[in-house]
Specification:
Keywords: Metal-binding, Zinc, Zinc-finger. Helix content is 36%, strand content 6%. With 94 residues, the protein is mainly alpha-helical. The C terminus is likely disordered.
Amino acid sequence: MPHVCTCPVCCDIFQEPVVLFCGHSFCKSCLQEWWRQSRLHSCPVCKKIFPVGEPPRNLALRNLSDALRQERSQRANSKDISLPVPASGRGCSD
């Protein structure tokens, strides 16, 4: 599932995903920056050109990305909490 939730521009979990008419999705800010730098409103993946306008939000992908981000955060937090206690039971301050 992680690759489905990854923006092809920044290679990170989607933030505010939008979808183009060609079906490709991007972080809203990644697409805006791509369009600003390229001066064309084209898809970063297939290069199809689109009319100027605000692409629609991809709510299903946003929900999936938010869930993945939350899962990763919980996993990282549980690793921090479940550190093993040394056999002496006194921790690191011997």
